[in-house]
């Protein structure tokens, strides 16, 4: 039936947990990229002056030593090692900031999640036919168009910044090296900031779409909902059968307790309540069995079989049946009525 195959039901908590365990979460890599770019730009703003001074010192040092430098293998290795250390020191904070902001963006979207499921080898990942199908799917087309749009958007932002500073580019021939570096750095900083903000807006829109798509894929059919309910709560027929067996066992235990009762109080045709009182163990008499109609008849039969005294007292039988559950002691207001009956029974037995 159509309503059984259409995914119209919202995902249950269990389905969401299973999806998360498999590593399937709503996440946009655009958010990671945008925040990483803005984080790196922030570090450039704080660290940029130091980076420019360091680069200027290196350039001056290289130019000053060009006449005396000896390009032996040992010297080349020393220069290369020094250059790598310098680049690491210079670019380390920038790269570290990008990593930290990227991880923060990932945590903000999905929290802490460790799943090895995506690393498990699967045939559909290496199947050429499946891969070819994914390449030309609607999802791949959407990602392609999104990538092209990002490039065009960033290019448009960069062009806007450069066009506003175009006149100054022609004046750079009269500037010294420091002014040239400062102008290029400020221009690059403006391009990065504006591009990062535009990409962040685009990333938030993409996250909203990814969230919507994720919720859509998690939806369940009514049949899946029924199957999950059976797995978590059990089949209704099985649960009904278990409850029936539990009632039968409770009834059997109750009937066994009738044979040990001290007295059965009855309403002749409807009710029967079996009472037990052990002074050394009980503070008050206790109801060990009760029933109506056929069950009351069965209680009377067992009482007669085991010679348990039967006392006809309709008002007391009704009160006991309505107010006291099996296994409970009688309330204080019924002490006198029950004590009168028990005293009579114990007197017949010769226990008083």
Radius of gyration: 43 Å
What is the terminal-to-terminal distance?
76 Å
Shape: rod-shaped
Please summarize the sheet with the most strands: 4 strands, mixed
Helix content: 55-70%
Please provide the count of β strands: 4
Give the class from helix and strand content and strand pairing: mainly alpha
Strand content: 5-15%
- What's the average pLDDT? 80
In sequence order, what are the helices and strands, one letter per element? HHHHHHHHHHHEEEHEHH
Question: Low-confidence spans: pLDDT under 50, at least 5 residues?
Answer: none
Q: Which oligomerization state do the chains in this entry correspond to?
A: single chain
Total number of distinct structural domains: 2
Question: How many helices in DSSP terms?
Answer: 14
Strand order of the largest sheet: 3-2-1-4
């Amino acid at each position: 039936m159509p309503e059984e195959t259409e995914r119209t039901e919202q995902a249950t908590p269990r389905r969401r947990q299973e999806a998360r365990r498999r590593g399937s979460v709503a996440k946009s890599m655009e958010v990671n990229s945008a925040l990483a770019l803005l984080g790196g730009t922030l570090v450039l703003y704080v660290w940029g002056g130091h980076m420019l001074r360091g680069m200027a010192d290196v350039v001056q040092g290289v130019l000053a030593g060009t006449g005396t430098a000896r390009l032996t293998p040992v010297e080349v290795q020393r220069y290369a090692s020094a250059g790598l250390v310098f680049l690491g020191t210079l670019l380390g904070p920038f790269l570290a900031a990008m990593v930290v902001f990227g991880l923060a963006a990932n945590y903000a979207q999905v929290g802490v999640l460790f799943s090895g499921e995506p690393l498990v080898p699967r045939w559909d990942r290496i199947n050429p036919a499946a891969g070819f199908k994914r390449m030309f799917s609607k999802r791949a087309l959407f990602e392609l168009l999104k990538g092209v749009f990002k490039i065009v958007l960033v290019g448009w932002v960069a062009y806007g910044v450069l066009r506003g500073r175009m006149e100054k580019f022609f004046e750079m021939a009269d500037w010294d090296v420091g002014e040239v570096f400062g102008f290029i750095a400020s221009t690059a900083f403006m391009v990065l900031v504006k591009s990062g903000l535009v990409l962040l807006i685009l990333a938030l829109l993409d996250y909203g779409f990814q969230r919507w798509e994720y919720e859509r894929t998690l939806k369940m059919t009514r049949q899946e909902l029924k199957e999950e309910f059976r797995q978590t709560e059990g089949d209704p027929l099985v649960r009904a059968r278990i409850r029936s067996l539990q009632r039968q066992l409770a009834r059997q235990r109750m009937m066994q307790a009738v044979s040990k009762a001290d007295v059965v109080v009855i309403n002749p045709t409807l009710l029967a309540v079996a009472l037990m009182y052990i002074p050394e163990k009980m503070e008050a008499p206790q109801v060990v069995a009760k029933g109506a109609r056929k069950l009351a008849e069965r209680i009377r039969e067992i009482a007669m079989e085991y010679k348990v005294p039967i006392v006809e007292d309709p008002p007391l039988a009704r009160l006991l049946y309505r107010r006291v559950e099996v296994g409970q002691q009688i309330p204080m207001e019924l002490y006198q009525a029950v004590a009168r009956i028990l005293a009579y029974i114990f007197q017949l037995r010769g226990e008083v």
